[in-house]
Amino acid sequence: MNGKTALGVILVAFGVLIALKLLGITFGPIFGFLFPFVLLLLGYVGMKNGRYWIGIILIAVGAIWLLIRLSGVFFLILAIAAIAIGISMIRGKSRRVF
Q: How high is the pLDDT of residue 98?
């Protein structure tokens, strides 16, 4: 795909997104979650094509953005683990025979 075709595809996609937003259909949460993966993929492709530093920067930005997006999930898992460990400690003390 040459540069003119790629620009045409980007403009069509941009126009479709604007038209859908005017109709009340938004993809904000979906794009907000998928965009870090796109950055990771572009970084990988950049590294494979000899653009090492650009690839590293895109991968770093994508990874940081993804960690920020998933931080709520990490904290939820941490809270569930703390509850499970606390319950096991409480049960463990009451079952021990000294």
A: 47
